[in-house]
Specification:
PH-domain like, three-stranded antiparallel sheet, four-stranded antiparallel sheet, 2 domains, single chain, alpha+beta
Amino acid sequence: MDKAGLRQWVEQNKQEGEEIVWAGSPRLVFMRGLFLTRVLPGLVLLGVAIWFHIGAPGIPLPQWAMFLTAAFPKEVVFLIAVLLLTVPPLRAYMLRHTRYIITTRRVIKARIFTSRVRQWPLEVVARARRIDYRDGLSSYIFDDWEDTPHRHERISRGIYFVTPEFREALEKAECRRQKAE
């Protein structure tokens, strides 16, 4: 679902008296902590896996180190390194292609490449725990119930790395909702 399709879906499914306050997406935040916690260790592990794979050429190693280079599961280290290097950029890409629409009654979230639309009542998001970051971005963390035939559990959900405009629009929508009541 693209941006226009999401807005059209919201327009078609609006509740009585509901109006769109804001539409936008999170900021791209690939380097936020991911570099030091995942990408850098992934690069180190990739280097170690390659070093083990080629057998530590030209370096005289003690007997125990030679055993490690021969017996160590190089494929496992390589797989972990590749995951650490690919998951953060993929997550950042997916985050960047997520769209939010705030109305006077709910917050609607959709990923552009899927047709899945999630929505929460405005009160749930307004009461969520807000985490403010130094660069002005915010995340809203709240609990949600997953009710399906095979699952019934509390899952931590959130709206991550949104711009200050999101926070302002949420406050504006909350004020409009309270005035309407």
